[in-house]
Amino acid sequence: MLRILLVVAKAENDNIALQNQIIQIKAANDILQKTVVKTQEENSVLAENVAEVKKDNVGLRRYISEINENIRQLKEKSVTLTAERDSAKEDVQAIKTSISYKVGRVITYFPRKIRDLLKPKKK
Fold first, then answer.
1. Whether the Cβ atoms of residue 46 and residue 39 lie closer than 8 Å to each other
2. C-alpha span between 73 and 87 (Å, rounded)
3. pLDDT, tens digit, for every residue of 95-117?
4. Which long-range contacts (CB under 8 A, 24 or more apart) does 29-32 make?
């Protein structure tokens, strides 16, 4: 009978130890569940942030594309304006080297000098 009591006592001790382990496992499980919920919430927030970044990225790419198009147009306009400027310089040079311009300068030499003498000088 003593042996049976010892076996029963050992079984009760083992049962208590198992119950304590079950309590610890349940506590650890609760912590893990809370961690999983928190991680899922964080993942949801991160997914929203990723979606916003992707949306912003599309908008920025569109904006960069528009800027690049503006740059291309401005370069074309710059080339055109440079060609017009060079053409105008050539026209001015052609006029200054023409005989009629030189003759006109000679004819108007004295009237220009008189005008310059009568005009007040600027400081």
1. no
2. 21
3. 999 999 999 999 999 999 999 89
4. none
